[in-house]
Every structure is written in structure tokens, then in C-alpha cells.
Specification:
The structure is a single chain. By secondary structure, the protein is α/β, with parallel strands linked by helices. Helix content is 46%, strand content 12%. It has 21 helices and 16 strands. The strands form 2 sheets. Strands 1-8-7-3-4-5-6-2 form an 8-stranded mixed β-sheet. Helix 1 crosses helix 5, helix 2 crosses helix 5 and helix 10 packs parallel to helix 12. It binds phosphoenolpyruvate and magnesium ion.
Amino acid sequence: MFSLHATGVGDGIAIGKARLIRRQGAEIPEYVIEPGETLDEIERLRTAWMKAKLGLKRTLDGLPEDAPDDIGAFLGVQLMILDDPLLMEEPVELIRSQRVNAESALAAHAKKLESVFEQVDDPYLSAKSADINQVIERVLGELTDDHGDLRNQAPGKFDGEIIVAHDLTPSDAVELKNHQIGAFITNLGGPISHTAILARSMGIPAIVGLHGGARFLRTGDTLIIDGKRGVVLVNPDEPALEAYRRRRRKILRRSEALEFLRTADSITLDGEKVELFTNIEIPEELELSRTNYYAGVGLYRTEFLFMNRSDFPGEEEQFETYRQIVEDAALPVTIRTLDLGADKQVDGGRKHSALTTNPALGRRAIRLCLHDLSLFKPQLRAIYRASAYGNVRMMVPMFSSMEELNQLFSVLENTRNELQEQGVEFDADLPIGGMIEVPAAAVSADLFAQYLDFLSIGTNDLIQYTLAIDRVDDEVNYLYDPTHPSVLRLIKMTIDAGKSAGIPVSMCGEMAGDPAFTRVLLGIGLRQFSMDPTTLTRIKQQIRLTDIAKVKEKAESLLHVSDPQTNRKILSEINA
Ligand code: PEP
Ligand code: MG
């Protein structure tokens, strides 16, 4: 038994078998095997080799008649390489002599071959090196029992398992929602990365930002995940398993005890009503929102409709999806316009991440949409059309200047005129809101509030930009601090700006769904929270246990505290 420590997500405990998901080019698991395991490990390598060969042969046999000859020749060369017993010899020897796992033996051999090929200045041989690498990647894929593709897996394939990956992207998130996984672990990511958001939306614990620690794990290991403490116990002994089973039962009982709160009013001890909305990514999450008695959808992340597919959804498909959600909800639905780019790539960032020097500061979200109207206009038309079927609000992510808002308003006007001319029905008064995610938007929220119908604070990005910490970079996780005075000041400025302008202000970042901050936010004036449906009841419980008059002064004092120790002391007094 050994343990790994990193950033924990969620309060829960999960116990299950590890399932490694390995992507081409990702880290290779490395571990030492027991003396008695060498033969099994060699067998594992041989089986994976065989499977890779069969898979390749199947692909070759199944090639359509009209497939270009080059493809057949290319696959044929790879098959020949796999047929060469010499290529297996050295990895087998490494397993035997050094007792390393099959993956690292194979990777070490590949590296050696690569350096030999590099020294030879011959284009034919360099091409050969690429072929060998691809063959080795195939075998590595078989060894981890996965080719890194979460798509096209039978629903439920990973049920109960603990997914271990170098990284999980927002597009993987869509796929994983088809499985009832127990938990997951990633090398990358921080508390506000999409990996963490995914865990919360699935109501499961996760460990993120393991800094490469995932390479010590293998498929089939028994793992205990403690989301609260950020601990992974690997192949635990019976006493540890029993202790964690007990803790898991306790947590379950605690959450069952909250059941009765589902239908209760969301009201503080001193009688302040607080509205609780949900964040959704796929239409199926409406059901969970409904069972938790939500006030509406505070954030519908539409970019998920664009992921894991080779084409973009057109106006018609978007309209049908939005209309269905709006009708099903029969409550206000806040549709966020496309937030693509940076951490949210349609292909999970695998193809484009290297194209921009600093994607988080680049052409993402509203910047991308205003730049590419062929992407934006169909969505705007679809949202307007859906507004004829219920209570819709439109919200733009990541705006930072009046110039952007003016451009947006002009595109919106143009869209409305078009629809009117075409005799298409829509809500002409559809509220247009802006997300406060960039410090510039928060600092001048009073100015922007004059032109918008509502504001919503996206703390995930607001914290990223205010504290200059990339939300997907595990190396700077430790700087994430929602109660940093600068963050709290920006939140308070936004709330006050909304109040002065007479428009609603909500918060839809992860901070709104963390009970540790509910009282602080209530204390500085927030009355609308939007969060993952799974956390709604827990936040409601916290609201019902809060007397705002009693916490207001302390919460506001946090805006003037720079010393972390004093900050922690005040925070624990507020939450006492
Ligand atoms: C946010 O930034 O807080 C937010 C809600 O948007 P996302 O997490 O989708 O970027
Ligand atoms: Mg955001």
C-alpha cells in the first residue's frame, strides 16, 4: 500500500479498481514489478502485441476497395514490423532483468531505437522510425486496454471504475457522463479546471493535479479516493479499506439526511430569500436540477453541444436542442453563447493547443464569436427562436470592453431584424446579460451594467485572470484562493454595480457551489447562486443556517485582510 497526495475535489470517498486511459504521447506508467510477476508481465506484453497485430490486420482487411493504395501499403509496413520477433526481444529482456513494467520496457526500447535512427542521415530510415513509433503506440494502447478514445465506448463500460488519465478535457467530460464511474484521477488540472467541474457535476470525488503521479498506477489496482483530503491510497490493506468503507457510509447517511431539504424554501434565518439556479452542460442534467427544486438554469454551457463530433451543429439542430431544454425546464433558462477556445476546445485541445502562445488570453469566447460570425450568427438565431417557447435569457462570456458589447448589440439587432423580416417568432425583449469573468469587466461593472439586463459572476475565470493562475495548470493550483481580498473586492464591486443599476447579479462559478463560501457571499450581498445540481441542496442547507445580519460585518472585513492566517480565522468564525 502507498499513498499519493494532490488536490481533492468533492467531499466523497470512492473505492474501486483503476482504469488507465492513455493518450498517444501522454505519460507512460512506470513501476517495478514483484519478482514473481515477471512471467505474467512478459505474457501481458505478448498479448498486447498480439492484439495490436490482430487489430491492424482487421483494419487492413476491412479497407474499402477504393481506398488509396498508400493506406494499404502503410498498414502493411506496420504489420511487418509487428511480425518481427526481434523488436520484442529487448523489452522482454528489460522486464526480466530490471523488473520494470511492460509499458516502460517498451517505451525505453522505443527511445533507444529513436536515438539510433536520429544519428543516421537517411530520409528512408527516418520514415521507418515514425512507423516503429506508431507500432509501439498501438501496443501501448493495448497494454492500457484503451486507445485513449473515450468515444464509441458502450455506455456503462467504466461503471464503478476509477478513471486514471494524464488529463481529461471538457469533451471527455461529455463521454464520461455515459458511465457511472466511481471517481477519477488526473495529472493535470486544478480546483476550477473542467476536470474538477466534471467531478462535481457527476457527484463523485476526484483527485486532480497529481503532477505525473498517475504513472505509478496501473489498470486493476484497488484505489481509495478521498476527495476531501486529496489522497489516493493504492492497493490498501483490509483495515484501511474497512475504515474508508465506514467513512463512506457516514457520508452517505449525511447526504440522505439532506433529502428533506429538497423541497424546503431557500431562505436565511433572518428571512432573506435566496434564488438557487443550476449549471448544466447537457440536456439530461435538467432532470437532476428538477429533483433538486431549482429556480431555473443559471448557466447552460452550450459549447458542449459542439464537442466530440467532426461537424458543427447548424442553426436547426441548435434551435431544436435549446427549444427542448426551454420547454422541459418551464423556468428561466440562461443560455450562454459559445465559450470555445483556451480550456474548451471542440477536440479537447488535442489538435490546436499549440497554435496560440497563451490561449487563455487569446481569441476565446465572445472574442472568437465576434470574429467568426458564421459560427456566432446561427447560434444567436437559434437562441432567439427558442425564446418563443419559454423564458430565455442570453448571456455572453468573457467580455471586457464596451466596444465588444457594442459589436454584440449590433449583431443582435441585425439578427432580430432578420428574424422579423422572415416572420419568425421570438421574444423581442429577451434579456441580454454579461458574465463578469475578466477583472476589467468587474472593475467597470457599474459602467457595463447600464447596458446589460443582468450580470453573472464567473469566478472560475475571474479568479484565473485576477490572480494570474492558469486554471488548467496544476503547478499553480496552490495560488487558487476565492477569498483573496482582490477577488472578493471584484465580486463586491459587481454585486454593488448590479444593485445601483437595478439589475440582478448572480454567480455561476464553482465558488457559488462551495458551502465554505456561502456565508461570505451572502454577507457581501449575493442573493442568486448558480451551481451544479448535485450541490444545490447542500448550499440550501447552508443558507437556511445563516443569519446574514450576523455574518455581514465579518464577511465585509475579509475585503481588508491580506494576512492569510487572519483570513482563515475570520472565515472559520463566519462558518462556525
Ligand atoms: C466561470 O468562469 O466561472 C464559468 C462559470 O464559466 P466556465 O467555467 O465555463 O469557464
Ligand atoms: Mg468562464
